[in-house]
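Holo model, S-adenosylmethionine. Inputs:
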Amino acid sequence: MSSDLVSLGIEGLGLNLSPANILDLELFLQEMSRWNRVHNLTAIEGEANSVRLHLIDSITVLPVMRQFLGLQNPKIADLGSGGGLPAIPIAILQPEWRLTLIEAIRKKTAFLQHVRGKLGLKNIEVLSERVEAVAKSQPGQFDAVISRAFTNLAHFLELSLPLLKPDGLIFAMKARRANEELQDVCMDDWRLVADEPLQIPNLVVERRLLVLSPVRKLPL
Ligand SMILES: C[S@@+](CC[C@H](N)C(=O)[O-])C[C@H]1O[C@@H](n2cnc3c(N)ncnc32)[C@H](O)[C@@H]1O
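Output:
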Protein backbone atom coordinates (compact mmCIF):
# COMPACT_ATOMS: atom_id res chain seq x y z
CA MET A 1 0.00 0.00 0.00
CA SER A 2 1.26 3.48 -0.84
CA SER A 3 2.39 5.22 2.33
CA ASP A 4 2.03 8.94 1.48
CA LEU A 5 -1.68 9.30 2.15
CA VAL A 6 -1.45 6.82 5.00
CA SER A 7 1.30 8.84 6.67
CA LEU A 8 -0.89 11.95 6.44
CA GLY A 9 -3.52 10.15 8.49
CA ILE A 10 -6.08 9.18 5.86
CA GLU A 11 -6.84 5.99 7.75
CA GLY A 12 -7.83 8.06 10.79
CA LEU A 13 -10.95 9.21 8.96
CA GLY A 14 -12.67 5.92 9.75
CA LEU A 15 -13.71 5.33 6.15
CA ASN A 16 -12.46 1.73 5.92
CA LEU A 17 -10.44 2.40 2.79
CA SER A 18 -9.26 -0.65 0.87
CA PRO A 19 -5.71 -0.90 -0.53
CA ALA A 20 -7.31 -0.48 -4.00
CA ASN A 21 -8.98 2.77 -2.85
CA ILE A 22 -5.64 4.16 -1.64
CA LEU A 23 -3.91 3.17 -4.89
CA ASP A 24 -6.63 4.89 -6.95
CA LEU A 25 -6.41 8.06 -4.84
CA GLU A 26 -2.62 8.08 -5.27
CA LEU A 27 -2.97 7.52 -9.03
CA PHE A 28 -5.33 10.53 -9.19
CA LEU A 29 -2.73 12.63 -7.33
CA GLN A 30 0.05 11.46 -9.67
CA GLU A 31 -2.02 12.37 -12.74
CA MET A 32 -2.80 15.77 -11.18
CA SER A 33 0.85 16.64 -10.67
CA ARG A 34 1.84 15.27 -14.12
CA TRP A 35 -0.85 17.34 -15.88
CA ASN A 36 -0.14 20.34 -13.71
CA ARG A 37 3.50 20.34 -14.86
CA VAL A 38 2.47 20.23 -18.53
CA HIS A 39 -0.80 22.16 -18.63
CA ASN A 40 -0.41 24.51 -15.68
CA LEU A 41 -3.75 23.71 -14.06
CA THR A 42 -3.49 26.47 -11.49
CA ALA A 43 -6.23 25.15 -9.20
CA ILE A 44 -4.14 22.10 -8.40
CA GLU A 45 -0.82 23.78 -7.79
CA GLY A 46 1.12 23.27 -4.60
CA GLU A 47 3.52 21.19 -2.61
CA ALA A 48 2.94 17.46 -2.89
CA ASN A 49 1.73 17.23 0.69
CA SER A 50 -0.55 20.22 0.41
CA VAL A 51 -2.26 18.68 -2.63
CA ARG A 52 -2.62 15.45 -0.65
CA LEU A 53 -4.22 17.40 2.20
CA HIS A 54 -6.69 18.96 -0.28
CA LEU A 55 -7.64 15.45 -1.28
CA ILE A 56 -8.08 14.34 2.34
CA ASP A 57 -10.13 17.50 2.92
CA SER A 58 -12.39 16.35 0.08
CA ILE A 59 -13.17 12.96 1.57
CA THR A 60 -13.82 14.10 5.15
CA VAL A 61 -17.34 14.95 3.90
CA LEU A 62 -18.17 11.32 3.15
CA PRO A 63 -19.50 10.15 6.55
CA VAL A 64 -21.92 13.11 6.63
CA MET A 65 -22.99 12.60 3.03
CA ARG A 66 -23.59 8.89 3.68
CA GLN A 67 -25.71 9.81 6.69
CA PHE A 68 -27.98 12.17 4.73
CA LEU A 69 -28.15 10.52 1.30
CA GLY A 70 -30.52 7.62 1.83
CA LEU A 71 -30.65 6.60 -1.84
CA GLN A 72 -28.67 3.70 -3.31
CA ASN A 73 -27.51 5.58 -6.43
CA PRO A 74 -27.88 9.31 -5.80
CA LYS A 75 -27.09 11.69 -8.65
CA ILE A 76 -24.78 14.42 -7.37
CA ALA A 77 -23.49 17.56 -9.11
CA ASP A 78 -20.09 19.05 -8.18
CA LEU A 79 -20.09 22.72 -9.20
CA GLY A 80 -16.77 24.24 -10.32
CA SER A 81 -14.89 20.93 -10.08
CA GLY A 82 -11.54 22.40 -11.18
CA GLY A 83 -9.01 19.57 -10.92
CA GLY A 84 -11.67 17.18 -9.57
CA LEU A 85 -12.11 18.05 -5.90
CA PRO A 86 -14.18 16.84 -4.19
CA ALA A 87 -15.90 14.80 -6.94
CA ILE A 88 -13.10 12.43 -8.05
CA PRO A 89 -12.13 11.16 -4.57
CA ILE A 90 -15.84 10.76 -3.74
CA ALA A 91 -16.43 8.85 -6.98
CA ILE A 92 -13.48 6.55 -6.20
CA LEU A 93 -14.81 5.73 -2.73
CA GLN A 94 -18.52 5.56 -3.63
CA PRO A 95 -18.69 3.70 -6.96
CA GLU A 96 -22.48 3.37 -6.68
CA TRP A 97 -23.00 7.15 -6.53
CA ARG A 98 -23.30 9.05 -9.85
CA LEU A 99 -21.30 12.26 -10.02
CA THR A 100 -21.62 15.04 -12.59
CA LEU A 101 -18.59 17.35 -12.64
CA ILE A 102 -19.44 20.79 -14.00
CA GLU A 103 -16.46 22.95 -14.93
CA ALA A 104 -16.31 25.90 -17.32
CA ILE A 105 -12.60 25.78 -18.24
CA ARG A 106 -11.90 23.36 -21.06
CA LYS A 107 -8.32 22.44 -20.15
CA LYS A 108 -9.57 21.40 -16.70
CA THR A 109 -12.35 19.25 -18.15
CA ALA A 110 -9.82 17.67 -20.53
CA PHE A 111 -7.89 16.62 -17.42
CA LEU A 112 -11.06 15.33 -15.74
CA GLN A 113 -11.92 13.25 -18.83
CA HIS A 114 -8.38 11.88 -18.82
CA VAL A 115 -8.73 10.86 -15.16
CA ARG A 116 -12.09 9.24 -15.94
CA GLY A 117 -10.40 7.00 -18.52
CA LYS A 118 -7.21 6.36 -16.56
CA LEU A 119 -9.03 5.28 -13.41
CA GLY A 120 -11.92 3.61 -15.24
CA LEU A 121 -14.43 5.74 -13.33
CA LYS A 122 -17.74 4.76 -14.90
CA ASN A 123 -19.75 6.73 -12.33
CA ILE A 124 -18.63 10.20 -13.38
CA GLU A 125 -19.84 12.48 -16.13
CA VAL A 126 -17.79 15.57 -17.02
CA LEU A 127 -19.59 18.62 -18.41
CA SER A 128 -17.47 21.32 -19.99
CA GLU A 129 -20.06 24.01 -19.38
CA ARG A 130 -21.03 26.81 -17.08
CA VAL A 131 -23.28 25.79 -14.20
CA GLU A 132 -25.90 28.28 -15.39
CA ALA A 133 -26.16 26.44 -18.74
CA VAL A 134 -26.51 23.02 -17.08
CA ALA A 135 -29.29 24.43 -14.87
CA LYS A 136 -31.20 25.10 -18.10
CA SER A 137 -30.39 21.80 -19.85
CA GLN A 138 -30.84 19.51 -16.80
CA PRO A 139 -33.29 21.27 -14.46
CA GLY A 140 -34.35 19.42 -11.30
CA GLN A 141 -32.17 16.36 -12.05
CA PHE A 142 -29.95 16.12 -8.98
CA ASP A 143 -30.45 14.52 -5.57
CA ALA A 144 -27.60 16.61 -4.20
CA VAL A 145 -25.22 19.40 -5.15
CA ILE A 146 -21.78 19.88 -3.60
CA SER A 147 -18.94 22.33 -4.12
CA ARG A 148 -15.56 23.19 -2.68
CA ALA A 149 -13.88 26.61 -3.04
CA PHE A 150 -16.45 27.56 -5.69
CA THR A 151 -18.23 30.73 -4.60
CA ASN A 152 -19.91 32.25 -1.54
CA LEU A 153 -22.77 30.32 0.06
CA ALA A 154 -25.65 32.54 -1.10
CA HIS A 155 -24.46 32.44 -4.72
CA PHE A 156 -23.82 28.68 -4.54
CA LEU A 157 -27.40 28.15 -3.30
CA GLU A 158 -28.81 30.39 -6.04
CA LEU A 159 -26.92 28.46 -8.76
CA SER A 160 -27.83 25.07 -7.23
CA LEU A 161 -31.56 25.55 -6.74
CA PRO A 162 -32.60 24.97 -10.39
CA LEU A 163 -30.46 21.81 -10.55
CA LEU A 164 -31.97 20.22 -7.43
CA LYS A 165 -34.89 17.82 -7.15
CA PRO A 166 -37.57 19.20 -4.76
CA ASP A 167 -36.28 17.04 -1.89
CA GLY A 168 -32.62 17.48 -2.87
CA LEU A 169 -29.78 18.46 -0.56
CA ILE A 170 -26.94 20.96 -0.71
CA PHE A 171 -23.54 20.10 0.77
CA ALA A 172 -21.47 23.25 1.23
CA MET A 173 -17.83 22.73 2.25
CA LYS A 174 -16.88 25.77 4.28
CA ALA A 175 -14.13 27.11 6.51
CA ARG A 176 -13.96 30.01 8.95
CA ARG A 177 -16.33 32.31 7.06
CA ALA A 178 -19.32 29.94 7.27
CA ASN A 179 -21.20 32.01 9.88
CA GLU A 180 -20.76 35.25 7.92
CA GLU A 181 -21.86 33.54 4.71
CA LEU A 182 -24.92 32.04 6.43
CA GLN A 183 -26.06 35.54 7.38
CA ASP A 184 -26.41 36.39 3.68
CA VAL A 185 -28.75 33.43 3.05
CA CYS A 186 -32.52 34.01 3.11
CA MET A 187 -33.68 31.43 5.64
CA ASP A 188 -37.26 31.73 4.36
CA ASP A 189 -35.98 29.87 1.30
CA TRP A 190 -33.56 27.41 2.90
CA ARG A 191 -33.49 25.10 5.91
CA LEU A 192 -30.16 24.37 7.60
CA VAL A 193 -30.41 20.60 8.05
CA ALA A 194 -26.98 20.15 9.64
CA ASP A 195 -23.79 22.03 10.40
CA GLU A 196 -21.07 19.42 10.93
CA PRO A 197 -17.51 20.14 12.04
CA LEU A 198 -14.95 18.15 10.01
CA GLN A 199 -11.61 16.96 11.33
CA ILE A 200 -8.65 16.71 9.00
CA PRO A 201 -5.89 14.52 10.46
CA ASN A 202 -2.64 16.45 11.09
CA LEU A 203 -4.18 19.81 10.27
CA VAL A 204 -5.49 22.39 12.71
CA VAL A 205 -7.94 24.28 10.51
CA GLU A 206 -11.63 24.92 10.86
CA ARG A 207 -13.69 22.98 8.35
CA ARG A 208 -17.46 22.61 8.33
CA LEU A 209 -19.95 20.90 6.12
CA LEU A 210 -23.28 22.70 5.90
CA VAL A 211 -26.24 20.64 4.73
CA LEU A 212 -29.21 22.65 3.44
CA SER A 213 -32.50 21.89 1.76
CA PRO A 214 -34.79 24.24 -0.16
CA VAL A 215 -37.99 25.24 1.62
CA ARG A 216 -40.91 24.01 -0.43
CA LYS A 217 -43.18 26.88 -1.32
CA LEU A 218 -46.91 26.07 -1.20
CA PRO A 219 -48.87 27.50 -4.11
CA LEU A 220 -50.74 30.70 -3.16
C1 LIG B 1 -11.15 27.80 -6.99
S1 LIG B 1 -11.58 26.61 -8.18
C2 LIG B 1 -11.98 25.24 -7.10
C3 LIG B 1 -11.80 23.94 -7.80
C4 LIG B 1 -12.11 22.69 -6.98
N1 LIG B 1 -13.49 22.62 -6.58
C5 LIG B 1 -11.22 22.60 -5.76
O1 LIG B 1 -11.69 22.59 -4.62
O2 LIG B 1 -9.99 22.49 -5.95
C6 LIG B 1 -13.18 27.13 -8.78
C7 LIG B 1 -13.54 26.52 -10.14
O3 LIG B 1 -14.87 26.88 -10.48
C8 LIG B 1 -14.93 27.11 -11.89
N2 LIG B 1 -16.10 27.97 -12.12
C9 LIG B 1 -16.32 29.21 -11.63
N3 LIG B 1 -17.53 29.67 -12.01
C10 LIG B 1 -18.10 28.67 -12.76
C11 LIG B 1 -19.37 28.53 -13.42
N4 LIG B 1 -20.29 29.50 -13.37
N5 LIG B 1 -19.62 27.38 -14.07
C12 LIG B 1 -18.69 26.38 -14.11
N6 LIG B 1 -17.49 26.46 -13.51
C13 LIG B 1 -17.19 27.59 -12.83
C14 LIG B 1 -13.59 27.75 -12.22
O4 LIG B 1 -13.25 27.59 -13.58
C15 LIG B 1 -12.65 26.99 -11.27
O5 LIG B 1 -12.07 25.88 -11.91
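The chain has nine helices and seven strands. The mean pLDDT is 90.
Archived with the compound record.
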